[in-house]
Each structure stands twice: as structure tokens, then as C-alpha cells.
């Protein structure tokens, strides 16, 4: 393919991804499933790797996918809410671990590992222990103010119980809907002739991004914290695992499946462990996330345009595909 042809194909891929992003992030009604989306995205990244001179600042590979809808008041994030790079194979996982070891001069790296919740990213701001604002990720820099809707989620504390609450605490996490609640909601929607949601992720996003909090209050949403944003006056925390324990002590819901693993072999083991439990978990996950545990090493690694260099999402194959294979097996 010539550079001119590649530029044309890239243009088409960008338009297609922009269309998919709008339906997924703004309308909460995806046009295609995640497998197909990921395939198109990878085609774009591979072509950009062959023709680096064709990478533009507006490319989906350079920016966080979401958008902040004008229907909500906008919120500027104090610290950017970035995305995660993906690994789809063992080779990509090993390449990630190698890059981390080379950049940090460590022989074996310790990783904090956790499920990749399939919901939507939000940030919660607490000032002197009081929940003052909550926002969606949006484009990573500007999100949507959904404070009133987040207040309807019982798992989110509106006030921290700590005797000495920090002056500022931003908690990053995922809002999601449990699989059983999603089934029930769609049954109710069908009975009432309302809109059906494609999956729990879209049901969670559609429910949180309501202009009327009374509707959100009727939707059973759950929340898991998975990190910190800006803060002031918190105790010294040296690692992601310590940060998660701090959040658990403050009574934020954190995943019981989180742990710490050493080196690429530890990551492979965790991927297999969680993969085996995936279908029996009460909520959807689309992979596992590996984060370099030590905060100093995270600082050494830093960020690329849209994601940290110290973390990666190791994706599972879409569950729809697995179900199909099982169906075929049963028929045979
Ligand atoms: P992503 O979902 O691949 O990864 C980043 C997000 O992971 C974070 O923003 C956070 O919300 C979430 N996350 C869940 N658990 C986490 C944890 N333990 N620690 C840290 N983060 C955690 O990236 P993205 O940019 O939000 O979305 C891209 C993906 O969304 C695509 O790969 C695709 O699967 C899907 N998508 C699908 C369509 C579609 O039309 N089907 C359109 C756009 C995006």
C-alpha cells in the first residue's frame, strides 16, 4: 500500500471509529460489538505503526475516546482521566513486561492486578470528607457533572467516616450494573415498551447519564473504586496496593479479586484464574488490568498520549463469541 492509499484508508477508519464512539459514549447504544470495534481500532494502530508520519493529533490512537455531552454541566478534571493500552495476546503481555523491566532496570516487576470492570469510568471528589462532585471521564480532560445521579448509588459514601478526612481526595472507579439487575431492568423496560439496553455496560451508562436523578435512583447501579486522582492531606502511600487498602479502609467498595503478582508468569496465572471465574462473577468484566505496583516506578515510566506506560488491560475474548461456541458444542 502506498502512503497515499494508507492516508485514505486511515481517514475512513477514523470516520468509522468516530461514528462508533458517538453511539457508544454519547448515545449509550453501540452500533457494533466490542470485538468488531477492537478489530477496526487495531487496523488503525497497525497502519499508523507502518506510516508514523500519518499519525495526527485527532487520531483515536492519540486521544481518549469519550465525549462530554453538552446536556450536562462540564467539569475540568484536576488530573487527566486517561485510557489503558490493551494486550490481546501473551506476546503483547510479555512485550509490556519487557518494556517495563527495561525502563525501570528491575529484574522482576511487582504488579497490582485486578479485574477490568465493564462499566463507565467516573471520578468522585471529596473535600474535607464530604462528597462534593462526581463526573464522567468524558474526553479525559473534560467530563460531565453527574453529582446528583451518583448520590443515588448507595455504595458511594457521601461522607467519609475517617476521624481526620483529607482536605482533598479524588477517587477513580467504575459504575456498573450487576448482570441480574440488568436482566430485570430489560424485562421491566420490555413490559413498559421502553428502550432495551444492549448489555449491562450500556445500561449503567444510560442510567447514570440521565438528566432526571429520579430515573437514576430507580436503576440499581454499583460502584468499584480502582484508583486515586488528585489529593491533599492523605497518608503517605507507596504503592497501588496500599492506595487500594486506604480506599477500602475509607469504606469504598474495592474488588475482593485484587491482588499483587510478580513478573510475566504471575500475570499469566492471574489471567487464567480470573478467566475461569468470569462467567460466574455477578458483573461483567472484559479483561484484567495489570498496574506496576510501586508508585516511584510508575513515575519513572510516565505516560504516552492517551494511557499510562505502567499499566495495561489484558482483554478477554468477547463473551458473545464464547456463548456461540458453547451453543454449537451443545448442538453437536
Ligand atoms: P478501555 O475500556 O479499554 O480501558 C480504560 C477504562 O478501563 C478506564 O477508563 C476505566 O473506566 C476502565 N477500567 C475498568 N476496570 C479498571 C481497573 N481495574 N483499573 C483501571 N481502569 C479500569 O478503554 P476505553 O478508551 O474506555 O474504551 C475502549 C474500549 O471500549 C474498546 O476497546 C471497546 O472494547 C469499547 N468500545 C466499544 C465501542 C463499540 O461501538 N462497541 C465503541 C467505543 C469503545
Question: How is this structure best described in words?
Answer:
The chain has eleven helices and eleven strands. Helix 1 (3-26) runs antiparallel to helix 2 (34-50) and helix 3 packs antiparallel against helix 9. Strand 4 and strand 5 (130-136) form a beta hairpin. By secondary structure, it is an alpha+beta fold. Helices cover 40% and strands 20% of the residues. The strands form three sheets. It has a five-stranded mixed beta sheet. The chain has a four-stranded antiparallel beta sheet with strand order 5-4-7-8. Residues 321-332 have low confidence and may be disordered. The protein starts with a helix and ends with a helix. The chain binds nicotinamide-adenine-dinucleotide. Nicotinamide-adenine-dinucleotide binds at residues 20-21, 24, 30-34, 37-38, 64-65, 83-84, 86, 114, 116-117, 121, 137, 174, 226, 289, 313.
Tag the structure with descriptive keywords:
single chain, alpha+beta, 40% helix, globular, binds nicotinamide-adenine-dinucleotide
From N to C, what is the helix and strand string? Answer: HHEEHEEEEHEHHHEHEHEHEH
- The total beta strand count reads 11
Low-confidence stretches: 321-332
Strand order of the largest sheet: 2-11-10-3-9
* Distance N to C terminus: 43 Å
General shape = globular
Fraction in helix:
40-55%
Mean pLDDT: 93
Main beta-sheet strand count, sense and barrel state: 5 strands, mixed
Radius of gyration: 20 Å
- Distinct small molecules bound, one entry per kind: nicotinamide-adenine-dinucleotide
Oligomer: single chain
Strand content: 15-25%
**By helix and strand content, what is the structural category?**
alpha+beta
Please, how many helices? 11
